[in-house]
Each structure stands twice: as structure tokens, then as C-alpha cells.
Amino acid sequence: MKALITGGAGFIGSHLAEQLLARGDEVCVIDDLSTGKLENVAHLRSHPRFHLAVESILNETVMDRLVSECDVIFHLAAAVGVELIVKSPVETIERNVLGTHVVLRLAARYLRKVLITSTSEIYGKSESIPFTEEDDRVLGATTKSRWSYSCSKAIDEFLALAYYKEKGVPTVIMRLFNTVGPRQTGRYGMVIPRLVRQALAGEPLTVYGDGEQVRCFTYVADVVWAAMHLMDEPRAVGEVFNVGNDKGISIVELARKIIAMTGSSSEISFIPYSKAYEEGFEDMRIRVPSLTKVKAAIGYEPRVQLDETLHHVIDHFLANKSQE
Ligand code: UDP
Predict the structure, then answer these.
(1) 245-277 pLDDT, tens digit each
(2) Among 22, 110, 132, 14, which Cα is nearest to 65's?
(3) At what angle do helices 191-201 and 251-262 cross, to 10 degrees?
(4) Is the pTM of this model over 0.90?
(5) Beta bridge pairs of residue 208
(6) Pairing of strands 50-54, 240-243
(7) Ligand 1 site-directed mutation target among 122, 251, 277, most atoms within 8 Å of CB
(8) Which of 36, 201, 232, 293 is buried deepest, with most CB atoms within 10 A?
(9) Residue 205 in contact with ligand 1 by CB distance below 6 A
(10) What residues act catalytically?
(11) Where residue 136 falls among pLDDT bands split at 50, 70, 90?
(12) Would the CB of 250 count as within 6 Å of ligand 1?
């Protein structure tokens, strides 16, 4: 199989590329390196079945050729990270909506199967725990730019489902819940790489709000496994799946765990959301996926739990000291 991975030089995309190559597939990556990095795929570049195009997915000429030459598309290219979203809302909306539109139109032209990467932000600040795929979405006002991410990804989902329904394009949607692992950068706001870096540098760990907000962290290898199996499963077409880990932890507890695991002398510094992001910023208190549907469809089971995930991330930071 020849797979096209949009955003394949990003954190998740680079791990997916590795696994596809390992099982014998040919992999073509397109990435504009906006948040992706060449270092993430440096070890793959000499592989005979690996190809890289440093280009935006909005370049339709290049995308037309790449889509025509592939069998399936893993669409991961997107604006991600709450900090980036709050700072650059225009880029977030345009990149997510216009980029997915290009991918789907070309997938329709060549009738290619597409896996769309979506997000648990879709559920917004709903407190109906655990979130199931058919749940209502609860979002804040349009004046709060955080919600533009949820809406831009929701448009991606609507588009993907519409292209399936109306044009017969085989699309599958996976909603990810706080994916973590080596190569994830804290530069765009993701909490674990940020706190691990701070702990190793002996800096205070920045916990936003009261730290009682709960997240479920998913190890990247579990996400990659799910992506590959959802792509291969014919019954997944036209469906939406949560992919994550259903064991939650509060952020303050997470910070304490990271301090203990790194043997750091750092303290915890509580920072109001208004200072961390912007005035009036709204966070969700709790986010837990129901995994019933994805378990039934592909036998998914989160295999790596938080302690092991943190070990992998800490080891990666120690081995790459120059990381931001
Ligand atoms: N967070 C934090 N300190 C940081 C970065 C993030 O306390 O340095 C919090 C953030 O406010 C959120 C949680 O950690 O409640 C997870 O944040 P992240 O950006 O990783 O993902 P999100 O769940 O917001 O998509």
C-alpha cells in the first residue's frame, strides 16, 4: 500500500510513518514544517520506501500529484496546540478548514480512502462524562478564540461525512484525546512536554487555573495502532471514533508525578488562565473518552499507561537535551 501522510513530519505523523514503513508500506509525507520538524523524520529519509515533500497541503498542484499516486490518505496536517490557536486564530481556522477541503476534493477526484484526524475539543466544555461519539457539543462564545479550533475541526468532520454521503468518498474520522510521546513539543502549549522540560531544568512547573482539571493522556503508539487499524477496517467508513485512554488525572497531580519521576527540586507555580492564555479563556474541567465504539470496531485497547508514557517522554528529553 502507498500511504500519503499530510503533516507527516509532525509528532504523531512521524510515528505513523515509522510503523507504516515497518509493515512494508510505501510512505509519502507532505509537511510545510509549520509545526512539524525535519528532525522528526531525519532517521527515515534514507529509507527506500520513504518520500518527503516539504510543501503546504494548500498547494493543489503538488497535492493533486501526491493524491493521484497514493492508495490511502492519513490526514494529520492541522493547526494544533491551544497556545497557537489562541495566538493565531486566522491561521488555525484557515489551515484546518481549507486544508481538509483540498484533501477531500482530491480524494473525491481519485476516489481515495481518507482518515481524518479530529479532536476531543469537538465536545467542548460538555461535562457529560465519558464522551460518546453521538454526544451533543457544548461550546463557548465566538469571541473566545479557543472555540474556533473545535469549530474548525467540526467543519472538517462535517465535510468528511458529507463527502462520504454525497460523493461516496470512503472517509473515517478519529477524535484524539491528549496524545503524548517522544518528539511532541511544548512550544504550542501541550502540557506534558512543557512540565517535563520545566522539571528537568529545575524551573517551576506552570499549572494553569487550580490544576483540578482532568485529562486522559494517550500514548502515541496507541494512536498510531488505532489509525492503521481504522484505515484497514471497511466497517469504519463513514463513522466517527474516539481514540484515547480512559484513565484520567488532574493536572496538579500530573505535575507532582513529573516532579517525583524526574527527581526534580522544582516547585509548582499556579498561573491564572487569563495570564497563561488570554482574558476570559475557558478551559474544560474534565475530558474522558468512551472507548466502547472503537473497541468494538477494531479491538482497540490503550496498551500504554501514564507512568510508562512519562518514562518515554522523560527519556526522550534526556537524550535530546537541546530540545526547547
Ligand atoms: N496546562 C497547564 N500548564 C501548561 C500547559 C497546559 O496547566 O504549561 C493545562 C491546560 O490549561 C489544560 C491541560 O493542562 O487544562 C492540558 O493542556 P494541553 O494544552 O496539553 O491540552 P488540552 O487538553 O488543553 O487540549
Answers:
(1) 999 999 999 999 999 999 999 999 999 999 999
(2) 110
(3) 40
(4) yes
(5) 271
(6) unpaired
(7) 251
(8) 36
(9) no
(10) 149
(11) very high
(12) no
DSSP calls for 179-233: EE-TT--STT--HHHHHHHHHHHTPPEEEETTS--EEE-EEHHHHHHHHHHHHH-
Nearest to 79 by CA among 91, 66, 61: 91
For residues 311 and 261, the answer to whether their CB atoms sit within 8 Å is: yes
Alpha helical stretches, state H, the chain: 11-22, 38-41, 60-69, 82-87, 89-110, 146-167, 191-201, 220-232, 251-262, 273-276, 292-298, 306-319
Cell of 100: 481538509
The span from the CA of 107 to the CA of 168, in Å, is 10
**83 alpha carbon to ligand 1 midpoint, in Å?**
9
The answer, yes or no, to whether any atom of ligand 1 lies below 6 A from the CB of 213, is yes
Task: Supply φ then ψ for residue 307, to 5 degrees.
Answer: -60, -45
Q: Which residues contact 114 (CB under 8 A, 6 or more apart)?
A: 72, 73, 75, 103, 104, 107, 160, 169, 170, 171, 172
User: Is residue 171 a contact partner of residue 234, using CB atoms and an 8 Å limit?
Assistant: no
Q: Which atom of ligand 1 is least distant from the CA of 83?
A: 19
Spatial distance between the Cα atoms of 155 and 161, rounded to a whole number of angstroms? 10
State the pLDDT at residue 324.
55
Distance (Å, whole) CA 201 – CA 321: 10
Q: Using a 6 Å cutoff on CB, does residue 194 contact ligand 1?
A: yes
Reduced to 3 states (helix: H, G, I; strand: E, B; else coil), residue 148 is helix
* ∠ Cα 140 193 211 (to 5°): 50
Cα of 240 vs centre of ligand 1, distance in Å, is: 25
Residue nearest to atom 17 of ligand 1 (CA): 191
Per-residue model confidence as pLDDT tens digits over 26-73: 999 999 999 999 999 999 999 999 999 999 999 999 999 999 999 999
Say if ligand 1 is within 6 A of residue 80 CB.
no
Question: How is residue 169 written as a grid cell?
Answer: 468518498
At 64-86, the pLDDT tens digits run: 999 999 999 999 999 888 888 88
